[in-house]
Amino acid sequence: MNTVDKLDSRVENPVEVPLQTASQDIWQQKYQLKDRLGKPVDKDIDHCYQRIAGALSEPESRSATSSSST
To answer: By residue range, what is the domain housing residue 57?
Structure first.
């Protein structure tokens, strides 16, 4: 059992903490992806996390594809 498994077993009822207004404003101003016209691409923080996770995992999926074809 790794550390993550141990931590997960202790969390019985996770509580979602609402994002504070100031935190939402900071995210929108600094981190929310926008197109060249300033229109938001990320609809919320979760969408932002999913986009970033996909971008971070892309090199892995490309290397797995290229090594499986050889």
So the answer is: 20-68
In a domain, 8, yes or no: no
Cite the beta strand spans of 22-67 per DSSP E.
none
Total domains present in the chain: 1
Give the three-state DSSP class for 20: coil
Kindly list the distances between the CA atom of residue 29 and the CA atoms of 1, 3, 8, 35, 50, in Å, as whole numbers in the listed order: 41, 35, 33, 13, 19
Please report whether residue 42 resides in a domain: yes
Per-residue tens of pLDDT for the chain, all 70 residues: 455 555 556 667 778 888 899 999 999 999 999 999 999 999 999 999 999 999 999 887 777 777 665 5
